[in-house]
Amino acid sequence: MSAAEIIDELPRLNEAERRAISRRILELAAIQEEMKLADDLLLAACQETDRREGEDAKTKSAPG
Fold first, then answer.
1. If you placed Cys at 13, which of 17, 21, 40, 41 could pair as Cys (CB 3.0 to 4.6 Å)?
2. 55 Cα distance to chain centroid
3. Extents of the domains making up the chain
4. Is the dihedral of CA 10, 13, 18, 24 positive or negative?
């Protein structure tokens, strides 16, 4: 079913059905936002790991 078909069906639904759909859309949006946050945190952690490994490599290769 396409988005256009779903939108066309909305006026035929009763209030309870529309509310259920609204709740589900909000749930999916929240899940998507949580996944974006998790991705951002993972990226930041990987970048920090890379930065620290780069510092360690410089320290080990410096004449001492």
1. 17
2. 30
3. 3-57
4. negative
